[in-house]
Amino acid sequence: MDLQSSIAELKGLGPKSAEKFHKINIYTIEDLLLYYPFRYEDFKSKSVFELADGEKAVITGTVVTPANVQYYGYKRNRLSFKMKQGETVINVSFFNQPYLQDKIAAGSQLAVFGKWQALKSAVTGIKILAEAADDMQPVYRLVQGITQNALVKAIKSAFSADAHKWLPENLPQVLLDKYRLLGRSQATAAMHFPKDLAQYRQALRRIKFEELFYFQMNLQLLKAADKAESSGIAVKYDEKRLEQKFAELPFSLTEAQKNSLSEILADMKSGRHMNRLLQGDVGSGKTVIASLAMYAAYTAGWQSALMVPTEILAEQHYESLSALFPDLSIAILTSGMKAAVKRTVLSAIASGSVNMVVGTHALIQEAVTYHRLGLVITDEQHRFGVRQRRLFREKGANPDVLMMTATPIPRTLAITAFGEMDVSTIDELPAGRKPVVTRWVKHSELDTVFSWIRSELKKAAQVYVISPLIEESESLDLKNAVALHEELSAYFAEDAKVALLHGRLKNDEKDSIMQDFKNKKIQILVSTTVIEVGVNVPDATIMLIMDADRFGLSQLHQLRGRVGRGDKQSYAILVANPKTDSGKERMQIMTQTNDGFLLAEADLKLRGAGEIFGTRQSGLPEFQVADIVEDFNILEEARRVAARIVSDENWRQDKRWASILPHLDQKDSFD
Ligand code: ADP
Ligand code: MG
């Protein structure tokens, strides 16, 4: 018998019962050992005075009456007796477990695990324990057909065969010593049956490190492969011409922009493959940096492509690129284009007469052939899945890749979700930008807000109004938006043209409404959250968000980023009567800061990672025991040490852990 043996070989388990475990993916003894509990039951005895009504606990006492069983129907019965804890008399009942009668003798001590009913001073028993236990009982995730007892029995059987001792240590001794980690078999045993909380914590610490360390090793190896010379293309751009372009800009770049651009250019120039995330708050000037990178590629004779999530964004970028580079041939490609136009564009891209291409998903469709595609950029990257990003990459000979995002990604997530990428951050806004003034008002103050908006409209302001988000009900969302639109149309009939934008509209309908708003044919735009992404309307200065407490911080910040894009003072008005503390807290934080990174960190703490990105869609890894937010310290240390190991040439050659010893800084550890 070894780790790879079927669990059917364990004592007490036959082929039939072994098969049941297949449902939870346990086939071998190793699978069984590595199936950790997700929580523990605390079987320490409690005083009934500490218990809340309905709480489940272990209650010990002295039996004062013999057990009596009453039958009342087919296979239905109730066993009852009284016991005393101190001076408190407790009525104990067990349903349909008449065989317990033998275990209950007047005068004996008993430990009952059950549900406390304070009013009746009664316990509905679940089981009788040999004694109140000091250790913690494992609770496993199960599916129908497998019981906790059966699983515990199987695991105990594996342990009594000493199977856990067969688990090879998979962490190098140098790391075990450095971080004072439990050995693997000891940790595994303690994960299932910890003696006490302290031992459980030690086991958990070791297993989490193991998980995060190997995760980081994989990322760092991927990264190292990208970093290898000649893994990509060397874009030999013309520095003189690029500098000339800088000089022509109507503004000078911020320090953060300069730093990001030189990181990008260094990647492009080298023969290594670039895989970089450019993150920065809305309006921090990412697009300019991306455009300059595209220009650099052009001066070296490479084509570049910029992919964005919507047609209107494609048009916006197309216009700004054309304005920035009037001498270049720039093409736009979207799926909505007329077939004949599209054909012309496609052949121009293929022949290389086009220097830069901007477009939507159409850019990665099969019909598109590029000519020396050297740089691809995606905007608002998490709208594109991993598969789409890869498709794009395969369109060229492994072109350099830059992804831009205006959703600041907390450091924690950046090194996990995008850990294989390098990150450049623009963490300052261009000088002279006026921060958006944010106010939180109650519904009762709407009258005042509306009459203020009326006076701002007279000064040519344009206004976004976001209708409340109704979770899980798109139709209610729409109903709300429609009602709000009617209300505001009536109220502002004399002052403004009010339009409605929502997700059920066709793309070209949405685009034409946005164009009208941009061209000032519309002054008030009522919308569901579909306008969240990237559209630039510099004269829109007011963002009114109804029931703002229904949105997360990151989303509110995104919405607020739609205003404050010009040189006029802009305002965000959050209308909310939050019922929860978290809702109030979010409203307050919004009025206190305009810093997207601070907000993203706060959001992560308040709502958790999955809520922000949606685990699946973001490609966030899932761990069995580690939590990337809670275990950030371990994750950081794992990253640090994995990066050092992978950067060691000796290790890469002989994979002998001993060679990493000199790289370990004794000071580094984690708690
Ligand atoms: P992002 O893509 O990060 O949202 P953009 O690149 O679209 O930001 O920049 C927003 C606006 O600020 C644009 O009108 C752009 O021309 C302008 N801008 C960018 N960088 C600077 C700068 N360093 N100084 C002044 N204005 C800038
Ligand atoms: Mg942008």
Automatic annotation (TrEMBL):
* GO-annotated molecular function: 3'-5' DNA helicase activity; ATP binding; DNA binding; hydrolase activity
Looking at the Swiss-Prot or TrEMBL record, what is one Pfam family this protein matches? DEAD
Q: Which SUPFAM superfamilies match?
A: Nucleic acid-binding proteins, P-loop containing nucleoside triphosphate hydrolases
Gene Ontology BP, a term: DNA repair
Keywords (A to Z) from UniProt: ATP-binding, DNA damage, DNA recombination, DNA repair, DNA-binding, Helicase, Hydrolase, Isomerase, Nucleotide-binding
Helicase ATP-binding domain location:
267-426
Q: SMART domains annotated for this entry?
A: DEXDc, HELICc
Chain ranges of the Helicase C-terminal domain: 445-605
- Name the InterPro entries on file: ATP-dep_DNA_helicase_RecG, DEAD/DEAH_box_helicase_dom, Helicase_ATP-bd, Helicase_C-like, NA-bd_OB-fold, P-loop_NTPase, RecG/Mfd, RecG_dom3_C
Q: Which reaction does it catalyse?
A: ATP + H2O = ADP + phosphate + H(+); Couples ATP hydrolysis with the unwinding of duplex DNA by translocating in the 3'-5' direction
Question: According to its UniProt entry, what is the function of this protein?
Answer: Plays a critical role in recombination and DNA repair. Helps process Holliday junction intermediates to mature products by catalyzing branch migration. Has replication fork regression activity, unwinds stalled or blocked replication forks to make a HJ that can be resolved. Has a DNA unwinding activity characteristic of a DNA helicase with 3'-5' polarity.
Which family is annotated?
Belongs to the helicase family. RecG subfamily.
What's this protein's name? ATP-dependent DNA helicase RecG
Its gene name is recG
